[in-house]
Amino acid sequence: MKTQSTAIGLLLNWRLHLIVIVVSALSELIGIQSIPVANAKLLFLPLFYAFILCLFVNPNITKFSGKIINKKNASIAAPIIVIGILPFIAKFGTLIGPALPKIAESGSAMVLQELGNLGTMLIAMPIAVLVFKMGREAIGATYSIAREPNIALVSDRYGLKSHEGIGVMGVYVMGTMFGTIYFAMLAGFLATTGWFDPRALAMACGVGSGSMTAACSGTLATAFPSMKNEILAFAGASNLLTNATGLYVAIFIALPFSEWFYKKLSGEKKATSAMTKGAN
């Protein structure tokens, strides 16, 4: 009972809510800005400014912010994010139904988009192993987007204190801190290039993370206001499908493939064989 009362007290802390209101107001006042990059534009949405401003009032990052809000009160902000995203996720659900015929027309693209996660591994794994000389941490870091189900899988298979566990937790922390803003900026940039169909970009937004999907699809909806409902529907359907099938793809395809790919890149198997022969 005492713990519950403490949690409620932290949740109702007026300083925390005042900071959120002030930061949100300032971010909206700045509005959408853009920087030309070649033939495209890098879009900066209010979400980006809110992220930067909140860094300055985070007691874990800046010392002076401790006078405004302490670490204990700031820690309650993380679970509130989930609550804040729920209405947006609910909106996804209301848009998916009317858009089912268009989603069905996308055919195999919607189903096969889940395999796109393997494509990122083909790029990230060689860089991790050959450029940054990472060990087996590269397996945990590159086999998935490193959200909660992926952490659970690595924990069960290797343990979180293993090299693979360190890798997946490292990406999880970085994704939590910078993933949302990265997805928003990348979506904004790609939207202005004209390289991809907006619906394809919307499907790419559904990575299995509610906050990242919301940031990515929200940016696309801003860039293509006439296709707003269609973009949100495709992103929501893709995210739902990723949540439903992503763990199975990770278990049976992504993780085994990352093990094999790592051994090929690092020569781990050859090194082990050489050591065995030397011992004999």
UniProtKB/TrEMBL annotation:
KW Transmembrane (keyword) present: yes
Transmembrane segments: 12-36, 42-61, 73-90, 110-132, 166-189, 201-224, 231-255
Key words, A-Z: Membrane, Transmembrane, Transmembrane helix
InterPro entries found in the cross-reference section: DUF3100
Origin: domain of life: Bacteria
Protein name as annotated: DUF3100 domain-containing protein
Gene source species: Marinomonas polaris DSM 16579
Lineage: Bacteria, Pseudomonadati, Pseudomonadota, Gammaproteobacteria, Oceanospirillales
